[in-house]
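Quick one, tokens below:
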């Protein structure tokens, strides 16, 4: 893959790791074969590793089918997407018309264009659906959002050209991971308090059972000498699950919205866990 491209996440994503990406990069294995990201979301680490020329072959997955269709459309049909997206206007009425469309009844290019358009123009630029799976974020207050970032979409398309992209639950996306490969897990965070619960990316959310299942997979990967790095909150359950001699905890400070008001940001401790030493002296 070419090193000259500078692709960046094409969506703003809840729990996106742009804030933490430097800390994550410092803790990735110096060398690895294939890269796997089963909770890809906006893909902040994937794109950062790509910009550093560290991705040879990659497998990206997520349970969100609209998101995965958008990745695939950018990979396979970027010019048609750019054409469609550049027709969209930044206008409140258009926003609500587009929001009301049913993505399941749209062709792939239309569907991907709708997702990017809503993400660029909605309140806080996030993706959120209600229990029926309908996108329900109101119109945002951006003055002139860049709805169609042609240069970045083309760079993303090239970065994805050799990438397998799957819509599947995390426990099914690692069948091909082998010795010497690297997996980055960024699951929905375990809430640190009842009020900080932001795990509903999908109707159904991600519960404690999911966190337990993920830890089992981390043990399996460790046994077969596949590297992994995981990020999560510093909730008690996460400390307990990864308190094991096979794992190395790395507490880090991250800027986060600490309640529903995104403007009230504070620094929270989050946990990165690896199954290898990084050589860093952690605080
Ligand atoms: C914290 S976000 C990942 C953010 C990403 N690292 C970024 O930089 O934008 C978690 C992602 O996990 C996905 N997800 C939730 N439950 C899942 C599951 N059971 N299997 C696979 N993906 C899941 C969500 O759709 C969401 O995109």
């Amino acid at each position: 893959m070419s090193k000259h491209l500078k692709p960046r996440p094409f969506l703003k994503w809840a729990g996106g790791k742009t804030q933490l990406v430097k800390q994550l990069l410092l803790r990735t294995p110096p060398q690895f074969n294939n890269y796997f990201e089963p909770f890809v979301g906006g893909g902040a680490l994937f794109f950062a590793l790509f910009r550093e020329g560290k991705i040879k072959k990659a497998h990206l997955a997520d349970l969100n089918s609209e998101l995965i269709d958008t990745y695939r459309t950018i990979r396979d049909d970027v010019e048609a997407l750019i054409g469609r997206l550049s027709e969209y206007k930044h206008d409140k009425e258009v926003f609500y018309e587009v929001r009301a469309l049913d993505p399941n009844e749209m062709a792939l290019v239309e569907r991907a264009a709708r997702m990017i358009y809503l993400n660029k123009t909605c309140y806080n630029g996030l993706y959120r659906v209600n229990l029926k799976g309908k996108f329900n974020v109101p119109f945002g207050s951006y003055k002139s959002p860049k709805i169609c970032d042609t240069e970045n979409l083309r760079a993303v398309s090239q970065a994805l050209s050799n990438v397998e992209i799957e819509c599947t639950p995390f426990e099914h996306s690692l069948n091909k991971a082998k010795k010497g490969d690297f997996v980055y897990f960024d699951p929905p965070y375990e809430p640190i308090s009842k009020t900080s619960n932001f795990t509903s990316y999908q109707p159904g959310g991600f519960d404690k059972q999911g966190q337990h299942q993920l830890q089992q997979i981390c043990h399996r990967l460790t046994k077969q000498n596949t590297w992994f790095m995981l990020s999560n909150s510093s909730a008690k359950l996460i400390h307990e699950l990864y308190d094991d001699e096979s794992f190395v905890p790395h507490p880090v400070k991250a800027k986060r919205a600490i309640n529903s008001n995104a403007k009230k940001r504070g620094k929270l401790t989050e946990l990165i866990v690896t199954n290898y030493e990084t050589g860093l002296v952690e605080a």
